[in-house]
Amino acid sequence: MQKFPMTGPGLVRLETELRQLRSEERPAVIRAIAEARSHGDLSENAEYHAARERQSFIEGRIQELEEIISAAEVIDPATLSGENVKFGAHVQLVDEETEKEATYQIVGVHEADIKQGLLSVSSPLAKSLIGKKKGDTVSVPAPGGDRSYEIITVRFG
């Protein structure tokens, strides 16, 4: 079975989503299906079909989350150290063209959220950062051409 590296907070977020789907979303969609059924002819009942579609999505997501959670390998970045970028590292970068600074934490694929600064370990940027250290410059392929970033700091925890 494939293991998924993940931080503790990332695992908690997925477990919370799973609990919410099981305890709130699933019962709500079952009620919606029952309500729509009571309206009669199911062949032309848009509410019924929408509720069934929603149920299919919820059941699929529950199954997906159960698989991810069972295969999660929690890594605590606070226990890591060193100068080189690796999973769990908080990396502060500066775009060499625009001088914009950004800080990202390299996290598992299933917990990534770029708006929160959580960068997937499988993203092109993270792949180019892994193994590098403070002061190094990395080039990352981007739709508008390669972008260059300088690593300002690398920290763990």
TrEMBL record:
Domain Transcription elongation factor GreA/GreB C-terminal span(s) in chain numbering: 83-155
One GO term (biological process): regulation of DNA-templated transcription elongation
Domain Transcription elongation factor GreA/GreB N-terminal: 5-74
Gene Ontology MF annotations: DNA binding; RNA polymerase binding; translation elongation factor activity
Keywords for the protein's UniProt record, in alphabetical order: DNA-binding, Elongation factor, Protein biosynthesis, Transcription, Transcription regulation
Pfam family, one: GreA_GreB
Keyword Transcription in annotation: yes
Function, in words: Necessary for efficient RNA polymerase transcription elongation past template-encoded arresting sites. The arresting sites in DNA have the property of trapping a certain fraction of elongating RNA polymerases that pass through, resulting in locked ternary complexes. Cleavage of the nascent transcript by cleavage factors such as GreA or GreB allows the resumption of elongation from the new 3'terminus. GreA releases sequences of 2 to 3 nucleotides.
Family, per entry: Belongs to the GreA/GreB family.
Protein name per UniProt: Transcription elongation factor GreA
Organism: Acidisoma silvae
